[in-house]
Design goal:
about 270 residues; Rossmann fold; binds iron/sulfur cluster; alpha/beta; binds magnesium ion; binds thiamine diphosphate; globular
């Protein structure tokens, strides 16, 4: 079967055209996921894709797998319920920076602490996109958003630091410019047993682009992100101040730990 047919069979019939704005990174990231899924031979009959409310959260709607599309921020409680009831299912969560960093932050922490056996793909477009471009916990300081017209006065936080300290067992970060490593990291995350996170810094031309960068051009957003991106090796030896405005990219770590399979029963390492 050609790649094109494989993809077509995995898009939910009748779900297109999609609702993403032209040039939005969500479409690219869905494509990275599909490519990774093909390469690891992910069985879509065994997949549950989970999304809350948000632009990112629409991705499961377009995949021809079982999907849960519900309340903003509650993706990890649903993922927990699915894994408790049917641990044999593959569960992939698609969440925005708001979904896991703001309203769903505590759910993210507890799921990481338990090492819930799911993959979380975070589309970090640096703002609450669906609701009009409000500031989010990952919006870099100083930038304008719809709700920070004089510049964001808060510090952003780092989802890697959060995930690692909470107990996630695998974390990678890339951007939409770096298609191949992003796809490879999704493949590894799908193969990982435990709580794996792939964060992808993504352009939102419609809101973040216009408010923060003064341009709704998707390429401008991608270039801006790429210009601020450095690898883990390049970040090595930089002070916190020097890394403050950068996006550090790479496969940060992957480790084994017993997974969560209920309140009293923990599974064996694979
Ligand atoms: C319980 C609840 N609170 C708030 C909202 C409004 N809301 C919908 S999407 C969203 C933010 C989405 O931001 P993010 O998770 O980063 O996703 P994006 O749209 O940027 O992909 C908010 C605040 C909601 N729908 N439900
Ligand atoms: S508002 Fe931003 S994140 Fe949402 S679909 Fe449009 S470009 Fe993408
Ligand atoms: Mg967002």
């Amino acid at each position: 079967m050609s790649d094109r047919e494989w993809y077509r069979e995995r898009i939910r019939p009748g779900s297109l055209p999609h609702f993403f704005c032209p040039g939005c990174g969500c479409g690219q990231i869905m494509n990275f996921f599909l490519q990774a899924a093909e390469e690891v031979d992910l069985d879509f009959d065994n997949l549950v894709a989970v999304g809350g409310v948000g632009c990112t959260a629409r991705i499961p709607v377009y995949l021809d797998a079982d999907a849960l599309h519900g309340i903003h921020g509650r993706v990890l409680p649903w993922a927990t319920g699915i894994k408790l009831h049917k641990p044999e299912l593959d569960v992939v969560v698609f969440a925005g920076d708001g979904g896991v960093g703001a309203i769903g932050g505590n759910h993210f922490i507890q799921a990481a602490r338990r090492n819930l056996d799911v993959t979380v793909i975070v589309v970090n477009n640096l703002n609450f996109a669906m609701t009009g471009g409000q500031v989010s916990p990952t919006t870099p300081s100083g930038l304008n958003t719809m709700t920070t017209p004089y510049g964001n006065r808060e510090e952003r936080f780092d989802l890697y630091e959060l995930a690692r300290s909470a107990g996630a067992t695998s974390f990678s970060r890339w951007n939409t410019f770096r298609y191949q490593p992003a796809t490879d990291s999704i493949k590894s995350a799908l193969d990982h047993r435990g709580f794996s996170v792939v964060e992808i810094i993504s352009q939102c031309p419609t809101h973040f682009g216009r408010y923060a960068l003064g341009s709704g051009e998707p390429t401008k957003g991608m270039e801006w992100i790429e210009d601020k991106s450095i690898t883990i090796a390049e970040a090595d030896g930089l002070t916190d101040g020097e890394k403050k405005d950068k996006f550090v990219l790479g496969d940060f770590y992957s480790e084994k730990r017993p997974i969560f399979e209920g309140s009293t029963v923990y599974g064996e390492e694979k």
